[in-house]
């Protein structure tokens, strides 16, 4: 399980028309399904059986209870028999937790030799779930629909993926982001409406000064510093000049102080994501490099130059990805490799790429930054492994938030990069760089992204549904004419329904 305290409620709908014996069987079958799903390796969140709901009052009470239970991150619904959907209107109208509509039935195959009307009256999900689906469509309720037998791996995988997204959505609604300094001056896309973000997404974003870090540095003990330095030495390949007798050892000591101070501030304040900017460093002697990288590796979200939206999404996607193969990191499209046959993107940043996407043991080095006017910062340097990945950008386009996803394929660098002292990844953007970059720019996508080899597009599709925000996907099937049409039609749709979403 990802979060031992978080849970999904399994809710079965029926009615009293069929009698007590049928309702007892409905309850037994529902418990069996819950027990079965809880043994699945694909579902990381515990499902909790809830008694069958058969009246409008029972449904309303359950929805209200779910709303006020902090451990409940969503409900999985199933109509074992026919459950007249007008009973659900009031409850669904008040429910504010995500819904996964499981369209299944207890048995898999039809018992050809024994099937009778008792069996038919009990196993009515084929039309009971259609009735339930209609009322959610009529009420414009976003939800996940999963179809298939509950024992099948494909169904369990879809429920598991949705449960991870529900965890991410729960994290977003309770997330606190600390901004050390403000936005990078004159930059547009990293700005945004923080008030609307808290109203729409729940995330709280507030500003702090670099002195909140430097004031803590004064109180760090030597034993704390020595312990962290030892961890650096055992975890990474330290450059010779950073070793105990090296000429730049003091840079590593300063980096350790920054990490200790920054980590303690975030922990005490309950922050799970943060930003900084080289234009607001105050008396910090170097821009945080290895500190940010290690905090991201521990699950914190980060965005450079005050980019709070990307910081929040890094944290949310890390929550979704817990226990999955592949890493997730703050990223930036940095420079291109154009060739006649195929073109690539080199993704990187000044310092802050998460070692969760490293292809091996990272090298710990110190080099001039060339920007910011501070001492040379310490950073982890590495390449990222080949394989499928996504780049994700959350932007504020004025009247709404837009989520943009580009599917990519990471590839090994064609050559060594001996003079590039930063973490990096090379990728082939789908369907190709020309179309992908054109679509991204037309959509207003940011230069900062969340890069992940653990999370897929389906995660973000479910997340956008839960959050009620726009989603645009750039994949192998992307056609620019259709993409432009989607942009135009979405503009109309969200202007018409902005007060309902």
How would you describe this structure to a colleague?
This protein has 501 residues and is α/β, with parallel strands linked by helices. It is 38% helix and 22% strand. A six-stranded antiparallel β-barrel has the order 11-12-17-16-15-18. Strands 2-1-3-4-5 form a five-stranded parallel sheet. Helix 8 crosses helix 10 (249-269) and helix 10 (249-269) crosses helix 11 (290-297). The longest helix has 22 residues, at 153-174. The two termini are 32 Å apart. The relative contact order is 0.10.
Would you spell out the secondary-structure blueprint of this structure?
Elements: E1 7-13, H1 20-37, E2 46-49, H2 56-67, E3 72-79, H3 89-94, E4 99-103, H4 117-122, H5 125-138, E5 144-147, H6 153-174, E6 176-180, H7 194-200, E7 204-208, H8 211-217, H9 222-235, E8 237-238, H10 249-269, E9 273-276, H11 290-297, E10 301-304, H12 308-321, E11 328-337, E12 344-348, E13 363-366, E14 378-381, E15 387-396, E16 401-411, E17 424-429, H13 433-443, E18 448-452, H14 457-467, E19 470-474, H15 480-497
Parallel strand pairs: 1-2, 1-3, 3-4, 4-5, 6-7, 6-9, 8-13, 9-10, 16-19
Antiparallel strand pairs: 11-12, 11-18, 12-17, 13-14, 15-16, 15-18, 16-17
Helix pairs in contact: 6-12, 6-14, 8-10, 9-10, 10-11, 13-15
